[in-house]
Amino acid sequence: MKLYISRFILGALFLFTQFISAQSFSKNQFKVKGNCEMCKTRIEGAAKKAGAKKAVYSIDLQTLTIETDKVSTDDILKKVAEAGHDNEKFKASDDVYKSLPGCCLYDRDLQPEQAESHHEHHTNTAAPAKKDNEFYVRGNCASCKARIEKAAKNAGADLAEWNADKQTVILNFDSSKTSSDKILKSIADAGHDNEKYKASDDVYNGLPGCCLYDRDFAFGEANPKVHYEEETKHEGHKEHQTPSNDEPQSKHEKNIEGVVVTGSKAATSVSKKETGLVFNIDKKELLKAACCNLSESFETNATVDVSFSNAVTGTKQLKMLGLDQKYTSLTKEQLPEIRGLASAYGLNFIPGRWIESIQLTKGGSTVTNGYESITGQINTELLKNAKTPETSLNLFSDFNGRAEINITNVSPINDKWSQTFLLHGNGTFGNTDMNDDGFLDRPKGTQINAAYLLNYNDLEKSGFGSHFGINFIRDERTAGQIGFDKNLAQDKQPAYGVGIDISRFQVWNKTGYVFKGKPYQSIGWMNQYVYHQQDSFFGLRNYAGKQHTYYSNLIFESVLGNTNHKYKAGASFLYDGYEENYLIDNMKRNEIVPGIFAEYTLTGLKYTLVAGTRVDFHNLAGTQFTPRVNFKYDFTPQTILRLSAGRGFRTANVFAENQQYFASNRAINILPNGGNIYGLKPEIAWNYGASLQQEFKLFGRKSSIIADFFRTDFQDQVLVDLDRSPQQLTFYNLDGKSFANSFQTQWDFTPFKNFDVRLAYKYYDVQADYIDGRREVPFMAKHRGFVNLAYSTNKNDKGGFWSFDTTLNWVGKQRLPDMAGNPAEFQLPVYSNSYAVLNAQISKNFNKKLRAYLGGENLTSYYQKNAIIDFKNPFGNYFDGGMVYAPIMKANFYVGLDVTF
């Protein structure tokens, strides 16, 4: 019956999207002058009041697309002109034009035909010819024009005429009284980047919203928004270095034409445009620490907590909003990535040098990405963007026997096709035992990881774009006692050993189409297949698993009337085939989940509302309804409030997700509750959040504070009970309440040039009703502190500079599992001690092609001395390597080299 229902809904959704795209209105596109979002709202409103069925204005293209079946387009365009906006058929009266807000005073000298060339997307980066007295200056609107020309005249120019189309200013001046240098510096001081000087971030951020031009481009491009040249090797260096006033003027004036001014994005930033609380982490942030893989990508990030999962396998896990990694959706290229059997070790399968950027969303994410996100989403984007061929080599080694090599090549094939080759290999060869318990502090072994990406982009002409990827991983690890001999049979082993062999293959494709003449309407289809196999043993216990996953997601996006009302609708399909073997138990199951979803976005002048819902028809967990809503209100451009609420559900993979406890002699005990997956019901939770983002100036420089509170309430949960008995690992469904409260405040500021400071404090209250009563969830500190300092020197003539980065994490006391059933010498205290971990790194960029770095982790050398309970008797009843709350290794140092060809 459910299958018929799902087919009916999918069919209805298909007919609905066809109906939306097949309306038989006459469709026309006209040139209309405007500057900003206020213009857009005014133009579309005037057109709709005049009788347009749909009216969509593009600021970039300077076009108004109209759909009408009764009123003539002339009548509509006349109303648009009466509202103050010149167009190709009617011109606004001077009185109405002058009454517009300052940010809306577009350049009336620019004819509609010229506007097309000004806003049309170009990929040719050749600078157009300019005169000797003509200089590149950035700006947007009439307000910019007035400011630029006034600054030039204040600096002594007799005549200054700025052209928005060419992004240039023509200067006439008496060289005996002033100079082009002095004039351009005055223009930069007024907030406008030019070919010789860059405006300070503080002055730029103080401009009106309509004047905040795109700073990331090379001067002379036809459309500066398309081309972006980033100083990728200048980690943490957030300001372009203008020449010192002490330098000779001749040095200032050389290479006037063809000068490229580059803008450097902040290494980590909070998107002010996103409705949800989204942190954008640039690859420059990843270079601040020993980022060997995704698990180490958040060492300089205050939102995500990273910790060792046990004292034997050496793997790390993430926690967010006070809950385990499994409640966060971990995606790669917006496709499901670390889930199922990959939960325990998947963080090791995305090398840090492969990562182009990370988007971290706190709280429930969009319904278009699935139903599993409860505490948020972490999406990783791989390297795939380059204008010229670039090959990079990274060599890494620490002082305890770990070595790594990364080779990446990103290159365009032609103007539409580009490709990426990614190769990673690592090996751990030394016997590291810093606490002298006879066990390796981290496993030995090797990993080979290779990927190929192929990209097609022809959105401007045909409207099509596509991305293809393939990835293969082979990972082998051996851990346990130092005397373990993996060549002996398990039952012949005198020593305790752990072996983990993983093979993983995945292939994916994302294809999209943007409808011609409708930049607001598109359709995209994502598909992915994953095969994952793990063969492992922990002492005398065997665990093996296979997983086949197929995922498909179809999304249609368009508008309702105008772009203030957007919607997305689509359908998804997920298949998970699992086969697991634990000791003598063989467990098989297939999860089949078709689903449909819809999402509506309402945009006002100061607010954005995103409301969505999805329905998924899970063959084992039943029909699940997942609503989510996000709201953003801009009190001012510097004060932003966000609210969110949403539901998520997931099925628990109790074996794969709890392998950190396999390195013990705990017996697994599942208390069934009538569910269809291990006898357990699915996990369901609601997440609510609020955040306030405030920007201000400190020491004359930009500063920001973000405070957020999130609460997660479980409607149902699979509890992992470590307290019931120290010889048992018990799983059962929640009977009562389980919640997690998370409060975080983060302050970012720059006391002086090139020195960035990030301070954060987090408070967690995580409790659950276990069988014997409500308790704090173990291994979760209530209080955490964070300090990150980053400083870089000015660049020299060759582009070289030094960078210094350090991060201090303070972790408060944590409740530890009740071990009262053990003899006194094998018991744990009720709470752990608090501790601090200090990481630091020094790097030297010799030029844009060569970088060397030296760093240290856990420089405080705090470590858990008794990380393994009863380590002398690993086959006894009390042996337990899963009771880890702190680092298990003392200070570790590393060196590395980056070379770009």
SSE inventory with pairings:
Blueprint: H1 2-21, E1 26-31, H2 37-49, E2 54-58, E3 63-68, H3 73-82, H4 94-98, H5 112-119, E4 134-136, H6 142-154, E5 159-163, E6 168-172, H7 180-189, H8 201-205, H9 249-253, E7 268-270, E8 277-282, H10 283-286, E9 305-308, E10 316-320, E11 323-324, E12 328-332, E13 335-336, E14 355-362, E15 376-382, E16 390-398, E17 402-412, E18 417-428, E19 444-458, E20 464-480, E21 497-514, E22 522-538, E23 541-560, E24 562-582, E25 585-603, E26 607-618, E27 622-636, E28 639-650, E29 667-671, E30 683-698, E31 701-716, E32 718-721, E33 728-733, E34 738-752, E35 755-770, E36 773-776, E37 783-792, E38 801-811, E39 835-845, E40 850-857, E41 892-900
Parallel strand pairs: 12-15, 29-33
Antiparallel strand pairs: 1-3, 2-3, 4-6, 5-6, 7-8, 8-14, 9-10, 10-11, 12-13, 14-15, 16-17, 16-41, 17-18, 18-19, 19-20, 20-21, 21-22, 22-23, 23-24, 24-25, 25-26, 26-27, 27-28, 28-30, 30-31, 31-34, 32-33, 34-35, 35-36, 35-37, 37-38, 38-39, 39-40, 40-41
